[in-house]
Amino acid sequence: MEKEEVVLFWFRRDLRLEDNRGLAAALRSGSKVLPIFIFDSGILDKLAEKKDQRVDYIHQALQQLQKELQQEGSDIRTFYGKPLEIFKELTAKFSVKTVYCNRDYEPSAITRDNKIAEWLEKQDIGFVSEKDQVIFESDEILKGDGTPYSVYTPYSRKWREKLTDKDYRAAAMPLGNLFSFKKKPIMKLQDIGFEKTAYRFETPTLDRGIIDNYGEHRDYPAKDHTTRLGVALRFGTISIRKCVKFALAHNATWLSELIWREFFMQILYHYPQVVQHCFKPQYEHIAWRNNEKEFAHWCAGTTGYPLVDAGMRELNETGFMHNRVRMVVASFLTKHLLIDWRWGEAYFAEKLLDYELSSNNGNWQWAAGCGCDAAPYFRIFNPAEQIKKFDKALDYVKRWNPDFESLEQQPIVEHRFARERALEVYKKALDKSKH
């Protein structure tokens, strides 16, 4: 029996039908498009927590995607395993002309895609990846001398100068070119070794009420006046072009946050060593204390600093932490406790629903003072002062750390002492790097 000729569209960090560049390219190819999603065992097997909200989020987003595809007379096939092995199965079953997807910029994803592209080429099958999750990628924003930016402000300026309406125009989606095949349920969470969580997926929306006043309210954690779109951008359930278009019309501060996201993505692309190492090598000389008991107190939200503890409890309970509070808890870990930023980054990677390697890495290095566009090492947040500025009525602290007054817990370390100690350790490290 002759195999049916198709092109495959491999959904990854782009779980939507609207304005999806890679899917649009597949739909224009002239062949019928068979949509697939692979639960990558190489990634999932590393997750210790089997009630992982991120896996549940993906699963629920796929269910929504399947409904929309079925309304178009098509469907999606889901698989669990190593992507290359899945492609071997699919190419045995169908006459695959080309595999389409959207580009990923993380080092491990680039390695995976290169291996798959090489194997497909040997089978005389094309591999086409499109730019979708960013407005500008890799080499599109460079300095005059052709090197990448490592400081946000000039990068941001160039990004804005280069932007035209074409860059955020939505892709046309000729969905009539989807492959028609029999409906089949997507894999259950249990089939891939995970369990349901309390998370409820909702199609992401752009809320004018939040975005119009974003700059005024975003630093006050009790107001809950942030977009919560980090997870939607992470898994592509909303288009970055849609967000940028909305930001241009509504709020410059929110636009600058979207540009920060792209800045850190291109840093990771050009300097993949930052995954394990400080962007500024001289900071590798810091003599971290790495006290495991103190780290456990930080993780549990029992440091005796009400704002730090509220933030960590919010993270542990919900998988989210307000951005202002993220800066405070990261500064506290790296400066007050002198614990390696990599420990904190790994903890956030395990807990954050909106975990994004480039942003998590970039922001932790910023807080530790060792990143590309870092806060100077001598900027050390005072958690008590941060409460006075951003949670004066203690509304946020009381919500997540309600027993902070009754516990009368002694702070794990005294602020002035910790500050002086951090300054001394950092200065020694920098002096050492000069010799």
TrEMBL record:
Named cofactor requirement(s) = FAD; (6R)-5,10-methylene-5,6,7,8-tetrahydrofolate
Q: Is Flavoprotein a UniProt keyword of this protein? A: yes
**Domain Photolyase/cryptochrome alpha/beta, which positions?**
5-135
Keyword field: Chromophore, FAD, Flavoprotein
- InterPro entries, alphabetically? Crypto/Photolyase_FAD-like_sf, Crypto/Photolyase_N_sf, Cryptochr/Photolyase_FAD-bd, Cryptochrome/DNA_photolyase_1, DNA_photolyase_1_CS_C, DNA_photolyase_N, Rossmann-like_a/b/a_fold
- PROSITE patterns, sorted: DNA_PHOTOLYASES_1_1 (PS00394), DNA_PHOTOLYASES_1_2 (PS00691), PHR_CRY_ALPHA_BETA (PS51645)
Q: Name one Pfam family in it.
A: DNA_photolyase
- Similarity annotation: Belongs to the DNA photolyase family.
The molecule here is called Deoxyribodipyrimidine photo-lyase
Q: What is the lineage of its organism?
A: Bacteria, Pseudomonadati, Bacteroidota, Sphingobacteriia, Sphingobacteriales
